[in-house]
Amino acid sequence: MKHIPSLALTALLLAPLAALSAQTKMPAKADQNFIATPAELKARIAKQLHITKPDFVVFVPEVAGGASDTGNEHFLVFDGPDGSLMAVWTQSSVENFSPDTPPDQHIVFSQSKDEGKTWSKPRIIAGPKKAGDGFMASWGYPLVSKKGRIYVLYSQHIGKFDSFFHHTGWLDGIHSDDNGATWSKPQNIPVARSINDNPDATMPPNMLCWQKPLRIGKDGKYFAGFTRWTSLAVRKPSPKSLGTADSRVEFMRFENVDENPEPRDLKISWFAANEKALAVPCASYPENSVCQEPSIVKLPDGRLFCVMRTSAGSPFWSLSADGGETWTQPRRLLRKDGGEPLRHPVSPCPIYDVGGNEAGSGRYVLFIHDNDGKFTGYRPEPIVTGFNRRPIYLVAGRFQPGAEQPVWFDQLKFFMDHDNVSLGKPGTSGRFDLSLYSSFTVRNGKSILWYPDRKFFLLGRVIGEEWFAPSSRAASGNNLRALSTSGQAAERAFGCTQIKLGGVMGHRIETMIKGNLLKLDMEGTFLSYFRQKQETGGVRSLGKTLDAAVHLAAYSGDSELIAWKNHWIDELISMQEPDGYIGIYRAGHRGTPTRAAFPTNPANMSRTFTKAGCSTLVRTLRPCCWNGMKRGVEKSRW
């Protein structure tokens, strides 16, 4: 008999097992976000256009004729010199964040002569119509002189980059003297070099101004903040990402716009530059600063209040008492002095004055995501851009004379979200994020937020007085006191989002959510048994866990918990078998359910556990009473 070495014999004996194991491995999860064709994108558009409840629709991509219009962001709406509404934004097929994307970013202009109800077809005023037509142009912003000249300044790429592909560029400008009908040829505008720029003077800086300059500077001059990313030749990021690369906030004032100079002759004063630039240590790499995208409002006492995004889990704020020439050390943004921090990831967090961009009214709206960037137990597969940049909450703010932090904020109010459907260029996975690269106008007493939805649609939404009404927490407390004194408390039901517990009990609920529920090993403790379906008895109590999560999410409105709940419910639904069975038992041990709430007919069970029956009922989070939420859970019992 031929001798077979022991290692070879072992391999031979194990080969069938290995083959069996390979056959029984869970298949790779398909990318359900992938947008295969223009027809599929059009179907999504029809269902998604109004999901964020806009009052105005400015632009919907045509998805035809090879148009590079499926990426739309940095959406800046402003008052035109002729009394119309005007808008400029950065458009592309997909955001050009990498050399691997088609470099087709360009600046477009549109106009509305009926207060935003209808808009003219966007016209490209800078940059290429399609990739290959020239170097891309990005991040345009408007200035309007008192004589009626419109300037649009933007970042002009030159074919080489330093830190990030879409950040490196010279400051160029164009102008129009006929309300946007025609535009001048581009001219370069000199910018001040920084110690954080590349030592090679032929390399453009990495600068980005994301909000409209406002007339809040000295003598009513245009003033704006901007982000300057440090050159990789000066400081290497660890690793290279927007959330860790060194970045700082500076400011600029436009001195002679009202003289109607050529763009190349615009004079700009620079503040908080070099060592004085505003910095916030990076959470994971404290040797770097991550301080970006300043948003500025004027206070009633004339000071300027600036809010910036960071990687520290919250926005930070700074204050200037001299028209923006000097600024205080950035501090974490709290609800009020001594209050809890407002939570927010590395994402735009704009603040606006509801009385008018330059009014100093003392009433403001801040938009945040209410998460610190860490979604415990929730990472979409495959990963999607900015998955933690949603939902959006509106936080009303009020000026507080004499306070350390001069703007105090109300309770968060849910503002908008979508239903986990991506939008973007066909052939890609699209985008999920609600990154609020937005702008704000106040005309005829009406405040409007103009915003991109998934950097795809461009929309507008009225911000009315209801956002400044007393919070539901205070209102419910007043209602309870009134009802208890009249003896009618037992006759009235309160919504689960209307009553909040404070004190010890409130702290315990918060601790249970953050320290217990969100730390569960859901896969190992529960889901693995539902995947394998090899048990012959026993229970895992996954239904009770998800039932608790549904109620706690409805009660708390916590965006991290909502995302966690949605993810695990989707996972459970994906395990349903063709006959409707979801469970842990192997075939032959799946007797008739004994609980009356379980459907006994497989067909009925299948209908009960369809995505419409389970995911929509359980995941939908709207103001509702406790009994209503329980009914939703019972209709999708597992």
Describe it for me?
This protein folds into two domains: 38-468, 6 Propeller (Neuraminidase); 501-634, no CATH class. The strands form six sheets. Strands 18, 19, 20, 21 and 22 form a five-stranded antiparallel beta sheet that branches. It contains ten helices and 25 strands. It has 638 residues and is of the alpha+beta class. Helices cover 19% and strands 22% of the residues. Strand 24 (446-453) and strand 25 form a beta hairpin. The model is unreliable at 1-28, 376-385, 472-494 and 593-638 (pLDDT under 50).
Q: How large a portion of the residues is in β-strands, by DSSP E?
A: 15-25%
Distance between the termini: 59 Å
CATH fold naming of the largest domain: Neuraminidase
The description of the largest β-sheet is: 5 strands, antiparallel
Structural class: alpha+beta
- What's the CATH architecture name of the largest domain? 6 Propeller
Give me the Rg, rounded.
28 Å
What is the CATH class name of the largest domain? Mainly Beta
**What is the helix tally?**
10
What's the pLDDT, averaged over the residues? 82
The total beta strand count reads 25
Short description:
The protein has helices spanning 6-24, 38-48, 472-486, 503-515, 522-532, 542-556, 559-573, 602-608, 611-619, 626-634; strands at residues 56-59, 71-79, 85-92, 106-112, 123-126, 137-144, 150-156, 170-176, 187-188, 207-208, 222-229, 247-254, 268-271, 291-298, 304-310, 316-320, 331-332, 351-353, 363-368, 392-399, 407-409, 413-416, 439-443, 446-453, 457-462. It is globular, with a radius of gyration of 28 Å.
